[in-house]
Model the fold of this input.
Amino acid sequence: MKNNQWQASAYTEHAAFVSSMATEVVSLLAPVAGESILDLGCGDGQLAEYISAQGCLVSCVDASPSMVSAAKARGLSAALANGNKLEFSNHFDAVFSNAALHWMLDPEAVLEGVYRALKAKGRFVAEMGGQGNISALLKAMTDVFSENKDFGTFNNPWFFPSESDYRRLLERTGFRVDSIERISRPTPLASGIEQWLAVFADSICADLNAQQKKRFFTQVKVRLVGTLYSENDGWVADYVRLRFKAVKDSTD
Ligand code: BEZ
Done:
């Protein structure tokens, strides 16, 4: 499966909701001045910039060179890293992540890396897509692939766990789960469904030519107009969040 080719400028323009709807997870993080915090999958760095402005020492990592450049352009310390292979050890008071963990398909490896990166008593606070996230969107995309045999196989690039599955993963890694909840959060797409697909389904379309991509966008849109579009609200995606706080109680 190919990776999403993120373009930070398109992300900032068409996916501003990713940061603007993250108020609750930032509140759950409750950053305290002086703390050392890792932002895992920092995107364009908007939330890291806010956390940094609270007086924290923020380190950003992302798998996309374009996002790392965008975060650096905000004056943040940012580096390219694969979330499945974090190399920090006993370094951070907190690890924070918003809308990124569902792109990392080896959750055990991610959690081991996060656990190792934290100091004793450190916390992991994150929000990601939870079970049922974008289910209408996913169904439309898979249906369009199965009806267009020339598109090849549909590869789902995301991992949307249930609370119980993710709690088990956290506990198996050694975390104590302070809170975990799954929340339905319909998400208005101000730039429309095609821009959402262009930004987020890039890896799904990686092997399609320009004509096939256009057909994919059109057919997905036609399938979803009855469920995700209304005259009053425009396009609203069927997001479901998994939000949690987990603590590293031990010193390992
Ligand atoms: C999400 O934040 O839930 C998400 C974003 C893009 C694609 C899939 C999920």
Q: What stands out?
A: The chain has a mean pLDDT of 95.
